[in-house]
Amino acid sequence: MHKRTFTTASVATIILSTMVLASCASAESGGSEGGGDAGGTLIVYTNSNSDGRGEWVTAQAKEAGLDIEIVGLGGADLANRIVAEKNNPVGDVVFGLNNMFFETLKSEEAVTAYEPAWSAEVDQESGDPEDGVFWPLVEQAIVTVYDTNKTPEADAPTELADLWEDSAYDGRYEVNTALGQATPQLVLAGLLAPYLDEDGDLGVSDEGWEQVEGYFAHGSPAEEGTDLYARMTRGDVDFGVLPSSGITSRDAEYGTKTGVISPADGVPYVTEQIAVIAGTPRQDAAEEFIDWFGSAETQGAFAAEFASYPVNEGARAEALPEVVELIESLPKQDIDYALTRENIGAWVEKTELEYLP
Amino acid sequence: MRNSSWRAMLRSPLVVIVLVVLVWFVATFLVLPNANLLISTFFPEGKISVRALEKLVSSERALKSLWHSFALAATLAVTVNVVGIFIVLVTDYFKIRGSRVLWLGYATTLIYGGIVLAAGYNFIYGKNGFITNAALKVFPDIDPNWFSGYFAVVVVMTLATTTNHMLFLGSSLAKIDYQTIEAARNMGASTWRILWRIVLPALRPMIFAVTVLTFLTGLGALTAPLVLGGTDFQTIAPMILTFSKSSGSRDLAALLAIILGLATIVLLAMMNRVEKSGTYFSVAKVATPLQKQRIRNPLANALVHVAAYVLFVVYALPVLLIVLFSFLESTAISTGTITWDAFTLANYATVFGTPAVLKPFVVSVVYSALASLIVVLGMLFVARVFQKHRNPVTALLEYLLHIPWILPTILIALALVMTFDRPNPLIGGQVLTGTTLLLLVAYVIIKIPFTLRLLKAAFASVPESLEDAARILGAGPLFTLRTVLVPLVLPTAAAITALNFNSLLDDYDTAVFLYHPLYEPLGLAIRASTEGENNLDAMSITFVYTVLLMIIMGFTMWLVYGRGGASSRRRGSRRGTPRAGAGLAGSGAPAAPVPAAAAAVVTVSPVPAPGP
Prior knowledge:
By secondary structure, chain A is α/β, with parallel strands linked by helices. Chain A has helices spanning 2-34, 53-63, 75-84, 99-107, 161-165, 182-192, 206-217, 228-234, 247-254, 283-293, 296-306, 321-329, 337-355; strands at 42-46, 68-72, 93-95, 111-112, 135-147, 174-175, 196-201, 220-221, 239-243, 258-261, 269-277, 309-310. Chain A has two domains: 39-139 and 270-320, D-Maltodextrin-Binding Protein, domain 2 (3-Layer(aba) Sandwich); 140-268 and 333-355, D-Maltodextrin-Binding Protein, domain 2 (3-Layer(aba) Sandwich), CATH 3.40.190. Chain A is 44% helix and 16% strand. In chain A, the strands form two sheets. In chain A, strands 1, 2, 3, 4, 5, 9, 10, 11 and 12 form a nine-stranded mixed sheet that branches. In chain A, helix 2 links the parallel strand 1 and strand 2. The radius of gyration of chain A is 23 Å and the shape is globular. Chain B folds into two domains: 1-49 and 359-516, MetI-like fold (Orthogonal Bundle); 50-317, Orthogonal Bundle (MetI-like fold). The longest helix of chain B is centred in the C-terminal third of the chain and has 37 residues, at 538-574. Chain B starts with 5 loop residues before the first helix and ends in a 13-residue tail after the last helix. At the A-B interface, helix 1, strand 2, helix 3, helix 8 and helix 9 of A face helix 3, helix 4, helix 6, helix 13 and helix 14 of B.
C-alpha cells in the first residue's frame, strides 16, 4: 500500500542518511582526536568574508599552494563559537576580529602565540604588544558620516556631542541599537573613553553615562534591513555611523558625496587581527597561512581589491589613495582596548537595560 | 482506558523500550547540557547569584519590553484564533466561491516568514509603503507613520501566524461527523448555532494546542516589533538575543527566557487540565464525512464572501511584492522609486554566480529532512505513551521535553557545544563537538515541543474502541500503533513534518555554533551573502533567497498534501468512503487537498461525548 511504502522509504532514508552522517562524523572526529593530522584542509574562521572577500582569499591561497576552507560568521558569534569549542577546536586560524574580541580569545586561552614572518613590517602596538598572541592586518576608522550634497560642511557639527546637545540635530542622526554587534560596541566604547573614572558606575563617571543617554535619546534608531544611506537619501536622517571601508561603494551606489565628522579627540579605530587557534592539529599549515596572508604582497593585493587600509607598511603603497587620505586625515581616539574589553559586556548590559530608546 | 497504574505501564515491552530511550535522550541531551550551563550561570563560584534579578527589576526598559511581549502574546492568542478559525471555516466549512484560490492565498504564510514577511508588510503599509504613499496623495493629512507600533505588530503577526490553524484545525474540522450537523439542522438549529454548539466544541483540543503555539510565538516575537514596532513597542526578544551573546550577561538572558518559558508552561498546564476534563471523540459507529455548508442568510453570505476576499488580498500582496522585488535593483526598493528600468536579473545572477551555491541548499535539505522525520517518528511513540499512561513519571518527562521552549536557542546550542567537547560516557565515549551529528541532534531537540504538543492533540481525538478492537483481534501493540493509530494521526504528523522541515531550512541561530565547517547550511550562506559593510544589495538578495525558499517549501507542502491527499483518497475509496472531501475529491490540483487528506481517514469523528 502506498502509505506503507512511504513509511518504509522514510525509515530507509533516515537510516541511510544517518549512516552517511555518522561516517563523516567519525572520520572527522578520528582526525581531530588523532592530534597528529597535519594534512587536510585548513579551516579558517573569519568575520571578514563578506563582499566576496572569502572567495578571493580562498582562490588566492590556492594559487599560493594553500588549501583552505573559509568559515564566515558575524564577529560576536564567531568569538562565542571559538570559546565554546576551545576544548576540541574545529578551526585552525582566525582572522578579521577586532582587538576587543581577540583580547577575549586570548584571556580564554583559545588562541596561541606565533610570531609571523612579517612581524617586523607592522606596528606591534596595534596588535598584542605584550605577548604577541595576535597580529594586526588592516585598520578601519569608525566614523560619523553625512551627505555633503544635502548637508553643507559648514552645517555639520565638529564634535559628536553637538548631535545630541544641539536641538537642530534632534532625531536627525541614526543610532544603531543592536549592541551585540561590533560596530555599535565600538561607538559605545568611543563615547565612554573620555569619561573613565574608577569611582564611577562600572568605571565610568556620571557625565559619561549622561553622554550615552543623550546619544540614544536624541537619535533615530536604525531600521532593520534598511541601509543608512538609503535613509539619508530618503531624508529620514542626515547623519549616521559607518566603518570607513564602506564609504566608497556607497557613494558610487547612492550618488552621495560623503563628509566625515572629525572630532578633535579623534575617532575610534579598529584593527583586525590574525592568530592561530590553540590546540589545532594543523599548526604548521596555520603558520604558513598567516605568513602568506599577512605578507606585504597579499595585504597589498587585498587592499587594492577591497579598499582596506593595511597595517603592513610594505602594503600601503597598494592601498587606494582616497582610503589612505581619509585614514590619515582622521586622528586616532585614545581608547584603552584591554580595559574596554574587560568592561564592554557590563557597559552594553547597562546601556541595553537603561538607555536604549 | 487511560491508565495510571505503574504495573500496567511496565507490562508492555514497547512502552518500556520507549521510556528507556526517552529517559536516556532527555537526560543526555536536554537536562545535562542545559543544567550545566544554567548552574554555571546562576551559581558562579558555587553560590547563588541574584544579580540578574536585581538588574532586571531595576530596569524600566526591560520591564516595559517584558510587558509588551506578554501583551502581544495575549492579544495574539485572541486575534489569531479569530482570523485563523475564520480562514478555516471559509476554506473548509462554508460554501464559498473560489475557496481553493482563497486557500492558496491564505497558505502563503506557510512558505515565508521572519524579516522578509515583516519587511514585505512594511513596504506596503509602512512610512514609505506604496499604499501609504497613494493614500497621502488623496488625503495629505494622514500620519505617514500610521502603520507602526502595537497595532501594526499585532496585525502583521496575526496574519503571519495563522499557519497552524490552517493545517491542524483544518484537518480536525474534516473529522467532524456530518450526521451530528445534519441532525442539528433538522432540529431547526441555525448556521451560527451549529457552528457555536457543535463545530467549535469538537475542535477544542486542537484549538488549545494551537493557542499555546500562538502564545509562544507572541512571546518570542523578534523581527516584527523590530521592523514595525517603532520606539513605542519593542519586545523582550531582541534584548535576550543581545544578552545571550555576551558571556557576562548570559544570566540575564537565561532569566528573561525562563520567565517567558514559565508563562508558556503555566498556560500549557491549564490547557492540559481542560483537555483532560473532556473526551473528544464521537460515539458514532459510522461517521459521515463533512459536507460544505451554505450560508443561508444572503446578507451574511455576501459579508463573509467580501471579508474572505479582502483577507485574501491582504495575505497575497506581500508575497507578490517580494517576488517582484527580487527582480528590482536594491536602490529602487530602498528609495521607493520603481521604474521599468529598475527591473533586473542581476540579483539572481549574484546568487547563482556564487561558487557552490547549491551545496548549502543540499546540506540544509538533508539536515531538515532527517531532523523532521526523526522527531516525528520518535514523538509518535512518545506522544502515544504519554497519552495512554498518565502518571507522575510521564508527566515529568513531558515537561522536561518542553525545555527547548523555555531556553533561547542560542543557549541550547552553546550548551551542546560545551558539554560534548570531551568524550562522554552517556553517548559511548564519543566527542560530538566539531562533528556533523551535533547539528542534527540540536535540530531534533528544538523541534520536540512543537511536535509533541500537536501529536498529543491528534492522539486525543482517537477513540479507544478502535484500539480495543485491534487487541481483541489479536494485534500486538506495535502492530496496532502502526496499522491502526498512526494512520489516524498521519495527516497531522505529515503536516508537522512539513512545517518542521520548512522552519529548519533557513535556520541560523542553531547552526551558527554547531555546523561543521565543510557542510555550511543555507541560513549561514544567506547571512554571508547579505551581510557586509559594502553589500548594498542585501535586501534584494534576501528576496531572491526567499523566492528560492518559497519554491522548495511550496514543493514540500505539495509533496505532503498534493501526493498524500491523492494517495489517501485512493485508500479512502477502497475503504468505501467515496465522499471523502466531497467537493475536492475530483481535483488533481495541489491546491486544496488538506481536507481531502484528512477526511479520508474519517472513521471516527471528534465530537464531545460523555466519558466512557
